[in-house]
Amino acid sequence: MSEPQPASELSHEPENSENGTNGDAASVSKKAAKKEAAKQEKLRRRQEQEAAAAASRAQTADSEDPLAENYGDLPLIQLQSMRIADVKDWTEVGALTEALKDKKVQIRGRAQTIRAVGKNMAFIVVREKGFTVQCVATVQPEIVSRQMVKYVAGLSRESIIDIEGIVSVPGTPIISASQQVEVQVRKVYCISRAAVLPINVEDAARSDAEIERANQAGEQMVRVNQDTRLNYRVLDLRTPANQGIFRIQSRVGTIFREFLLSQGFFEIHSPKLIAGSSEGGASVFKLDYKGQPACLAQSPQLHKQMSICGDFGRIFEIGPVFRAEDSYTHRHLCEFTGLDVEMEIKWSYSEVMDVVDKLFVTMFNYLNQNCEKEFDAVRRQYPFEPLKYLPETLRLTFAEGVQMLKDAGVEVDPMGDLNTEAERKLGQLVLEKYNTEFYILHRYPLAVRPFYTMPCHDNKEYSNSFDVFIRGEEIISGAQRVHVPDFLAERAEARGIDVKTISTYIDSFRYGAPPHGGFGVGLERVVMLFCGLNNIRKTSLFPRDPLRLAP
Hints:
The protein is elongated, with a radius of gyration of 28 Å. Helix 7 packs across helix 9, helix 7 (240-262) packs across helix 15 (523-530) and helix 11 (398-407) packs across helix 12. The chain has helices at 30-59, 146-153, 201-204, 208-216, 226-231, 233-236, 240-262, 301-309, 350-370, 372-381, 398-407, 420-434, 485-494, 503-507, 523-530; strands spanning 71-73, 104-117, 121-128, 131-138, 160-168, 182-192, 266-267, 273-274, 286-289, 292-296, 314-322, 335-344, 394-397, 438-442, 465-470, 473-480, 516-522. The strands form 3 sheets. An 8-stranded mixed sheet has the order 7-11-12-17-16-15-14-13, sandwiched between helices. The chain has a 5-stranded mixed β-barrel with strand order 2-3-4-6-5. It has 15 helices and 17 strands. Helices cover 31% and strands 21% of the residues. Strand 9 (286-289) and strand 10 form a beta hairpin.
């Protein structure tokens, strides 16, 4: 892993929507790289000078100011839990409305922007949890001193501050803040002063359309590219779009859990250190486990099935999944959050597809009804159209999908898997014919499915399996599992898996195993595709891909 790249506050490299890696950097000439480095160094020096000047101005405030106790940097001792008090005295920025007019409030948030107007007035926009409010410090005898205004003007952006003041309602709309009230500052204290920022949050929050409009108007506007965002992820996460994305992600996980609990499932927590591959193939992270070979679980598949053999009936898990694939695409990660389900079935794997159908329709309905604020925040930076889906999810066989592609002039192997282009094309054809972007494709060829997949009863070349797609991309894989131990061992050997490494898994079926099936879905991919985003790194809190292990 290379060291994080220098701050690219003035970088105008286009974001790579396909892989988000450092690959394009290799094509930059040495001359251009030196020019960019010099530009960044000049910017860094200027910011440091501005910060030093601001600190100097604050330090030179008149020590004889009779109102000095009403502002300043709080000493550490006051932040070491020395006081126990009722937090009800605090008001969240998002709760500041006209109903609080003339009321005294106390707020805490980040100094998003600071603007001095002469020596007697300073504006400061305070941000908390995605909401912003404009605060005004105006010199008034025995209330606000000129030194206090100077202190406010000298605060650094993104510092965490406490403000006590009176709520007022201006006569004109406030464009620079979400809340349509102002706070007339009476006291202001800095809790944590931010250093010089390697990237500005307002730059990271700009949409491509906004930057393009500025370029067409002949204006230079900062574009923060993806690698720089991820290098300084803690700042990037503060943008309104990212605040929305990860709140939506939280809702997805919550709905997944609550729906399944309501359907008689319960949650398990399987080990992530295992002796052998859980999916087969070479995409596994190997490690030494006290002198024994081990690996990180590619999925909770084996232990999900073993739990069913333990008479758990219906179970689910939300946990990390590890894939050592060298996939430099817009939709692959080396670590992601898996949403996994396993259940006994009575007659058919269609019972598993029924759960998928009801679960995701319920999820989509809930998100559309309860996350409009978050969607708006995402759309302002990353515009997208609402997902089209049916009340009862469309189901097509793999053969039917292949035929649709052939009818459209796309040749695919009828016994092979669909590549990315074929998946997207099929998604387009399904949308045109059925007016849905969410559908199930089932009865896949057995050769392209994992070793534990049950073959079809009427044609052993096909399997009782399915994939689910959103906007032309696969998000879910599921199937009926093989529950006959000797047949399972035979299937594993055929895939090159050392049966000895999964002997406890196979043996668990020797004591009586019910027919069962399940599915797995990546949390990050669900959010990416539901919100129409172009890269899974946008929905991973701190992404892990073949080139990134930090932050």
